[in-house]
Amino acid sequence: MRINYAHCECQGKAVGNIVFNSDAPKKSANLSINADLLQQAKQLNINLSQTLEQHLAEIVRQAQRSQWLAENKVALDEYNRRIELRGTFSDGLRRF
Questions:
Q1: Long-range contact set of residues 73-79: C-beta below 8 Å, sequence gap at least 24
Q2: How do the pLDDT tens digits run along the chain, 96 residues long?
Q3: Residue 36: strand, helix, or coil
Q4: CA dist 58 to 20, 22, 64, Å?
């Protein structure tokens, strides 16, 4: 029975992961964006700052998850190997 609790995903959404401090002050940044795409976004009243922040937070979360899994791969593999070999302490107690 394999269980990966840490940094697991449920239907593509993070489970309790906070990527950044949403109360941190905003900082201006210079970006280069396709002129046509920028014009269309402005015509559609898309908030560029909010949209970028949301997508960037998701990319950061995914990168942090990948990094965490890579850093902990040996421990996770060893844990799963041990559980497959010996089972969990509660295997005999389950009623489901």
A1: 76/4, 76/6
A2: 444 555 554 434 443 466 788 889 999 999 999 999 999 999 999 999 999 999 999 999 999 999 999 999 999 999 999 999 988 887 777 776
A3: helix
A4: 10, 13, 10
CB distance 83 to 1 below 8 Å: yes
Q: Is residue 53 part of a domain?
A: yes
pTM: 0.66
Under DSSP, is residue 11 helix (H, G, I), strand (E, B) or coil? Answer: coil
In terms of residue numbers, what domain contains 69?
42-86
CA 26 to chain centre: 22
Both tokens of 61, joined, read 């979360």
